[in-house]
Amino acid sequence: MLKSHLIRSQAIYLVLLLRVSLVATASPAQRVVAIGDVHGDLANFEAILQTTGLMSPGHQWIGRGVVLIQTGDVVDRGPKSRQCLDLLMALERQADKQQGKVIALLGNHEVMAMTGDLRYVSAEDYQGFSTDKSEKVRERAYQDYLEFKSSRSERVRAESAADAKSRESWMMEHPLGYFERRDAFGPQGVYGRWLREHDAVVRLKEGVFVHGGLSPNISFRAIRELNQQIRSDIAAFDALWESLSKKKIIWRYMTIEEAILQAESEWAAIQAQTQVDAALKEELQKFLTFLTWSINSPDSPLWYRGLALDSEQTLAPDVEAMLTRLNIGYLVIAHTPQPDGRIHPRFGDHVFLIDTGMLQAVFGGRASALEINDGRFTAYYVNEKSQELPAPTKIANSSLVPNKALNGPHP
Hints:
Number of helices: 16
Number of strands: 11
Largest sheet: 6 strands, mixed
Distance between the termini: 50 Å
Structural class: alpha/beta
């Protein structure tokens, strides 16, 4: 059952991959605008979209013929993840009608939302998903949770007193809007369905755009392999979560941390059994390795920070070899907030860091965008004059290690 579901899910994702990849083209002179981490900061997201001339004050797409690439992490940390996603989805639809294109990439926080990693969800974020029915939704969920705990106690040794939660503490851990948010990011939820149609990496002519970065430490022949692996991991997770929930090994609204603990308890219990469901054993083994999957790897395109943090002197040869092998002129990455809130080039102007800490309350930065237009690279900031940046030259004619005396230090 699990395998057939997984094969079916992967087939659907591959079809969607082919459809999405068809839009990842741009004419040499087409204007491209890249915006990094938003993290629920709706006001600043709107402001930078208007500053770059892509959206009217009435939230209408006006960037005719422009490609907007949002490099992920629209959600978490800030107060208005839902509204930011709604805006991005609306602009995606509108741009298609004006010979433009909105390419929304997955960041690590989108995947965290889909897989139940809720460590960075703010109280205001949950409130954004609550309705006048949320009290009843939460009460039904609580009763369902009690039934789940009762069914588990019949099979697995009762948990310690430290694991038992009072009704009051349970309610505090599941604020109003919690369950609506989880459903919204599930495979059938409005945001979950939409996100599962999107890639983590996109190539436009000589440039590659990705949330975290491309690690020289991983082996891949083409960008599509990275997207296929991430889609495969998400599909496998969805299938396991559904199966283990139906078998009451985990509760479907648990966080990923809670679910792994439940799976560990189940795994310990079946070790003492003489007859074990082989399919269940296989599922548990796979689920318990989730944190080691490629989707969670520090070298994943969703999580990699080396291009932003590692020494250019040390990493340059590997980066140059990777860019040459893939025939890439430059990379645009986000994920790592820049301390001064500015877009910075690294590696001889072949890597551009565009996470400028838009969510000021957390990162103290500013909203920004990188424009690439007819070979020119320009940084845009809200209420500031735009700044032209050095354009990358052919790798064969340049060094990826900057001349510090000329360029100054890069963070």
